[in-house]
Specification:
Rna Polymerase Sigma Factor, Chain: A; Arc Repressor Mutant, subunit A; 197 residues; 9 helices; mainly alpha
Amino acid sequence: MGIFGMNGGVGGLLSGLSDVELLNAHVRGDPDAFTALVHRHHEHLWMTARRTSYTTEDAADALQEALLSAHRTAGSFRADAAVRSWMHKIVVNACLDRIRRNRSRPTTSLTDADVQEPTETRDRISDLETSIEVHNALMSLPPEQRSAVVAVDMEGYSVADAAAILGVPTGTVKSRCARGRLKLAVRLRYLQEEGNR
């Protein structure tokens, strides 16, 4: 996928290096080190971009921008956080920047890739419908609330870690999560009521 070629594996000695060692090797000029690092964390970074963005296309574009930024600024990495957290923060910021740029021209994706065909049983259809409703509710949150909820509730970061990743105080993360959760609860209340029937 993209310039960092996620189709092939980067094996050999690089696979035994830590994230910090890979990043340092990249800064020293190793042509494969950054690709190995991206390969190691690509799934997490893609899910972060997808959950933070409104469309798959925006997520892909923001992830590409974030990886280019990380590639260029790797020399400025300070070991005060994990490399994965540093990359996560760059991805979230790229997504939020893209949302701000697109705010004046909102679009809705209508590509075939976003349409999922239901298969077999009603339970699978029901699960898909619920998943779509939850995703739509999440996308209805303001971007800052959504990124906090995604970091804490979906990706399992502590409030302190989420605050470091998002570059805001812990109290801000707590309030964004609380407001976001309240909005989600109101919007998705009918799902709980259906489950109680």
